[in-house]
Amino acid sequence: MQRRDFLASGLAAGALAMARSAEAQSATPSSGERQYLELRKYQMMSGPQGRLTQSYISTALIPALNKMGIGPVGAFSLYFGQDTPSTYLLLPSASLEALVNVQAKLAEDAAFVDAAKAFWSAPAAAAPFVRVESQLLRSFAGYPKVTPPKDKPKNRCFQLRTYESATDLDHVRKVEMFHQGEFGFFQQAGADTVFFADTLIGPRMPSLTYMLGFGDTTEIDAKWAVFSNIPEWKKLNQDPKYNFEPTVSNIDNLILKPLASSQI
User: Fold this and answer.
1) Rounded to whole angstroms, how far apart are CA atoms 51 and 176?
2) Residue 160 backbone dihedrals phi, psi, to 5 degrees
3) Is the pLDDT of residue 20 over 80?
4) Is the peptide bond before 203 cis (omega within 30 degrees of 0)?
5) Domains of the chain, earliest start first
6) Model pTM?
7) Which tens digits make up the pLDDT trace of 189-212?
């Protein structure tokens, strides 16, 4: 089948297919309105920066975010991936406005300002981080809410994966594949499905990002092997609608460990 056959259908047809397949999706435990997610990275240097930032997140930031209705907040250290050491935060909210106004609201919260004093007042010569990066995401229609794992083993870890696509059409087709069964395939393989989301604002678009949970790092390869051998996945992956060309041009793969303060 030629690429022009797909282009003729247009992105609107792809979006309609995603909506219809989302209505039929039954594997996900989530339901309700789609959430907006801020994925934030604090890049740091080894040493006291990490301790100061993590203390700020646990004692000041997460309590203040929860008061704004933002949560459950994920807080993670980068275990494997580029730019270690780094700390990642996941801020889910039903309200885009709430995420947009976080900084202004924090400045008005007296309890937060007091708890955050050491972090906010740190001198430039001993800054608590090197740089902060942030992305705005929106959860998939078929998996609308962040879903923390029910079990929280001591050594649990999370895989944060970002799929970049070469074109908007390829991106739409890859999102469709998730709605055609991939949520359930991950669960069938034994992975915890935390969130699946489109990038609204961020680098390297078009792209999508999702998070899977595992009991420990030794489970990752084993459960991916199970996923890769699910017959329904193999059939979906070979569907001419999706394999006319690579729908994913690059994969960013990070392994995260939850901080003690993480609500995920």
Assistant:
1) 41
2) -110, 115
3) no
4) no
5) 3-34+138-258 (3.30.70.100), 38-135 (3.30.70.100)
6) 0.88
7) 999 999 999 999 999 999 999 999
Helix H, strand E, coil C: the string for the chain is: CCHHHHHHHHHHHHHHHHHHHHHHCCCCCCCCCCCEEEEEEEECCCCHHHHHHHHHHHHHHHHHHHHCCCCCCEEEEEEECCCCCEEEEEEEECCHHHHHCHHHHHHHCHHHHHHCHHHHCCCHHHCCCCEEEEEEEEECCCCCCCCCCCCCCCCCEEEEEEEECCCHHHHHHHHHHHHHHHHHHHHHCCCEEEEEEEEEECCCCCEEEEEEEECCCCHHHHHHHHHHCCHHHHHHHCCCCCCCCCCCCEEEEEEEEECCCCCC
